[in-house]
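We modelled the chain as a single entity of 612 amino acids. Its sequence is:
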Amino acid sequence: MNGDASIPRGRERYTALRPLGADAFSITSVARDGLLDRDVALTELRPELADDAVAARIVAARIASAADLSVPGVPEVFDHGGGRAARPWVVTALVAAPTVQDLVADGRSARDAEELLAVARTLAETMREVNAGGVVHGALGPDIVLLEGARTWVTGLGPQPWELLSPSDPAGTAEAWSRFTASLRFASPEQAAGEAPGRRSDVYGFGRVLESLLVLGERGEDAPPVVAVRLLGALQRLRESCVDPTPARRPASFAAVLGELERIEAAARPPRESRPEDVSAWPTAALATITTVHPQADADAVATERIRIVRGRPATPATATATAGAGAARSARSPKRASGPGSRPRPRRPWSPAARLVVAGAAVLVLTAAVVAHALLVPAGSAPDVVVPQVAGKTVEEAARTLTASGAVVAGQHPTASSYGAGLVSGTDPGPGTSISAGQTVALLVSTGPGETPVPQLAGLDVAGARDALAASGLTLGAISARDGVDRAGAVLGTAPSFGARVPEGTAIDLVIASGRVRVPAGLTGQASQPVIDALAAAGLHAQTVTQDTSEFLTGVVLRVEPGEGARLALGGIVTLTVARYVPPPAPPPTDGPVPTPSATADRTPVPVATP
């Protein structure tokens, strides 16, 4: 496409109108797009931090996290520029809505329990898609989640590890992570301890958002009391599991969070009303029994008693009426059962002594069996349950004392490989937190030291997924290095030690991940434009062309490449090619004297030829 110098480009295209928000490193403004004549959100490095290279690195990394992400619930990125060397900026869709934290601080905003459940589900769905795109938010909290009705908007994505990574400046990388973590209002415990965030860190941030939403729910009064209490109690339990200080005890992903929300919604629904049963087909034995015992009972009383005996529960008006009608019909067909002013009730037949003896004996047998069963299943004076305590890392003697004090009985030791030192207790069977009866035996698992385990296959996973896979194999995450190429940013390319190698449990495994950056190939200037475009496409870059009139080169020759050869760009970045368009040179001015005839050996201007 041809360039047009009159069209504003870059940061100059946008005019800041009014402030919208700010954090430790950047400010966000409502801005006007001069080209498309629309309002947008403009986020850029704070002016006072223009000379702060670490702050610029953090903002540029956060912009890169969102630039290639297309997820419903995350404002779309329209344009971005700058970088570590220049003041970074990004333009996104404008969402004019308050944050969850603003609504809590307002003191008047309220949501009923069902609205909170819908908001929690929408937020969890958005975060599931963010993580599925290989991005860990790392800064999730009520201060960056916007609430627009029941719809949530997730903003303020944090940097990815490979975006902050600078192999030539490890001290700068560490400082950048430290400053970014210190700027967070709702950092997870593992982030506060100096670790890079993972998916469970985002689950922790979701729990903090849910904590603020529950404050709004406590102000609501519109939901029915039973449903509201049931929903709010279930959401409170979910919040507690999400903000557990130990990452392994939190839900493993937002797919697990969504599954729990579905269970909460299903449990909160009122039970379906049972349909009235068709009593016309019930057996008549009960009616015969009742009419024998109560010969003067009317039809409604007989129907009610019949239902009580046959079904073991009180009758509803509908079923009683239906049964009464059925009994009346049978009475009409059976003259022997008709009653009236001149009829005599049939005398009741007394029980014989033998029948009475059989019934009494049966009752005694049933009562004896119940007493024996109770004595066997629930011994008298049974001790209350106790919870197995956590004794991992203790010596055998210390663990035994702790278990005995809790009411359990230590019985046996089982050697097992673990990351604990040889001779220390690595666990119990049953495990810690299990509820057992006082006096029940508990076996100690005694560590023999780290065992060996194979390095799992991590290629293609993101850093968070690789960390989880390593943890499942008893390994830990080591150093992370990045490599330029056409692979998806953040994807694991290899490990050290390599896949399949057997290493002691607890070993740190180093990762090589894709940086998401590629370099502009060399040797493009002077070539024909189409081969250059193909070479850029093979390198993961897109080309745009502008033309320049010249009489020195034929049409189609590449005159300039911007950025220059060797420049490092994001995968899918744009390279501008300046391509020649040949125009004849101007004719020389006429002279008054005779025009000299050029000799055959005179110097001639060579015809420009495009280099293939």
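As a brief sanity check on the tokenised model: The longest strand covers residues 14-22. Confidence is low (pLDDT under 50) at residues 1-5, 273-343, 600-605.
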